[in-house]
Amino acid sequence: MKEKYYISTAIAYTSGKPHIGNTYEIVLADAIARYKRFKGYDVYFQTGTDEHGLKIQQKAADKGVSPQEFVDDVAGEIKRIWDLMNTSYDKFVRTTDENHVKVVQHIFKKMYDNGDIYKDKYEGLYCVPCESFWTESQLVDGKCPDCGREVVNQSEEAYFFRLSKYQDKLEDLFENHPEIVEPAARRNEMINNFIKPGVRDLCVSRTSIKWGIPVDFDPDHTVYVWLDALTNYITNIGYDVDNSSDEFNRLWPCNLHLIGKDIIRFHSIYWPCFLWSLGLPLPKKIFGHPWLLTSDDKMSKSKGNVIYADDLVDKFGVDAVRFYLLHEIPFSSDGNLTIDLLVDRINSELANTLGNLVQRTISMGHKYFDGKIENKKVVEDVDKPFIELINSLDKKVEEQMDSLHISDALTEIFDVLRASNKYIDDTTPWILAKDEEKSDRLKTVLFNLFESIRVCGLILEPFMPDTSKEILKQLNIDDNSLGYNENNKYELGEAHPLFQRIDKSKMEG
Predict the structure, then answer these.
(1) Is 6 helix (H, G, I), strand (E, B) or coil?
(2) What's the pTM value of the predicted model, to 2 decimals?
(3) Which residue in 241, 261, 321, 330 has the most C-beta neighbors within 10 A?
(4) β 286-289/202-203 pair status
């Protein structure tokens, strides 16, 4: 049996259309999921939508529709964007799904029965957009530390989860299993800001919110956002408190929760405690990825700087946008997006480094040998380091992907593509073509280039699936090996441009 790999994104909140920063996460997860499939894993990739809470209730009322109608519309839009970006998720889940609702109620009751949930009164400072309670000391300049908005005093009866009961287990987890939360900066932030000061019991129900999952044994209460949202990772793979499915037993624990850095606290502190309460193993890794900024500023509708994925795709194509998102956002620091930067990358990396290499090499194969190329093994000194570079690519990319350095993995591929362009300059095929006695050397040079393009084309699939497919179609060869194969024979397809250079001066606003 193949080794399983379960990867999840955070579920997107259905308050509105996702912008390109939200879309980054699903593209990043897709590249990882595709890569794991590419390497032979049995991958399960889950994404979806978080559809309950006060903000949804208010937005639906403002539009004059029911909350269900509101979330149906937004969830449909989110799924459309995810599909537009060619993401290969296995399941798109929704927290309004009947099975999720039922299992969350069972989870709540189990936690209540085992003493981890109790009823009390909540008085505190509440941020409506974040749906979070805060203490006075946690506020920043008197405002919500997460979003910077005003907070309001709220007091109501509520159920609480005994987070404080798990203080010692959390300390032990962060001290002895640091690999579970990455990057290190996020982990240290959790230790210093939340664990060392002491975790406080967590409000897990509300009476003032009706749009949510009712507590079935106390219907005045609605299950509060994080106990509803976080449990999607298990409810949708067949978990139930007394009778979990074979699929759940096969897939859990999750190998990777991929989430934005702004919700790392809920995943690295609340979620382990919920799982301990249920007697379940913890996920293998929780990765809080950085943000995509625009002009070095966080995107927000109020600032008028929001960019949407479908607008970019209309102008530049899916794979160009995927490339930018995956290449321009480092492992642990925020990335930046402007149209100027995107066009620069398309022109330099995609049209020039990749597109020009593929088109001119295949064109030379047709021009000089009617598209039929085999290895004549007329070797010169320049060949050996080039072939070694091709042969080392698979391992280099694997190391970067396994450590979640996705941008660096793409850089490794483009380093080989750049080396291929340099190899053309060093071997001067157009000069070799003028000398009939150099015909076998020319064939060897072109063969080496096709092997480089073939290996790079294969390894590009997780990042730029359509481009990968087109490269392999133009090469017209079935070999899927990830190293230089000296025995291949090429009968080339037609050469077509992969990417066109963009003239900024002719771009519309």
Answers:
(1) strand
(2) 0.94
(3) 321
(4) unpaired
